[in-house]
Amino acid sequence: MAKSLRRILILTKRNLKEIVRDPLSLVFTILLPLFMEILFYFLFRGKTDQFDMKYLAPGIVAFAQSFIALFTGILISVDRSTSFLTRLYVSETRSFEFIFSYALAVLPISLVQAVLFFVVGGIIDTSIFCAGMLAAIPLSLVSALFFIAFGILLGSVCNEKAIGGVASVVISGQSLLSGMWFPKEGLNPVMVKVMDILPFKNTAVLIQNPVTGITNAWTDFFLPLLIVIAYAALIFAVAILAFSRKMKQN
User: Fold this and answer.
1) CA-CA-CA-CA dihedral for 187, 193, 198, 199, to nearest 10
2) CA–CA dist 223, 202 (Å, integer)
3) Cα(151)–Cα(25) distance, rounded to whole angstroms?
4) Using one digit for the tens of pLDDT, what is the confidence trace for 131-140?
5) Contact indicator for 247, 92 with CB cutoff of 8 Å
6) Minimal CA–CA distance to 105: which of 158, 4, 37, 26?
């Protein structure tokens, strides 16, 4: 166990260095959603509740995490295209150690996103500075794990050229199936049920509800939390299996 932890930490440190070496992708991942947060607030505030800052800021946090899936996938696919992972495949390093080292390296980016988007949102609308916001920031790391797991899975099975197109499915899913841009009232009940089951809406409400107010602890907090954790755990398990298969092939 101690050896595994040491290998994970060593790989995490290496992955952090690789992330810093590509500042353009890092800036894009953080600043584009921030620009969307500011632009959409001033363009659409008052149109629907979704563009009030108490909904928009946490919604943008969840939406930005879908970019994390793309960022993580590219990081892994690039490593797979080089001799770095090939050399490590013959070492004692195990699949789950690779996976967790990538997750630990990318998770701080999600934390920076959450803090930045809430702080900027609070500067624009001070009403979101509340105890709920302080709870929403650590909760955002739970939803981030789902998107990081998805990115690891995509990076494990897709090459560097294909990852962008495939990861766009995750970004589109978060945009269209989270309900963050439009009210769910008036939607087909079947579609609403599908959104309730899939992780995209649950990642958004998990971050939004502490800020907007929790009226029912089960439906507003514990159920979305369990759904997001379940999807994250499932996709992490699939990612480990996929990564292990690639290791054996190489």
Assistant:
1) 80
2) 8
3) 15
4) 999 999 999 9
5) no
6) 26
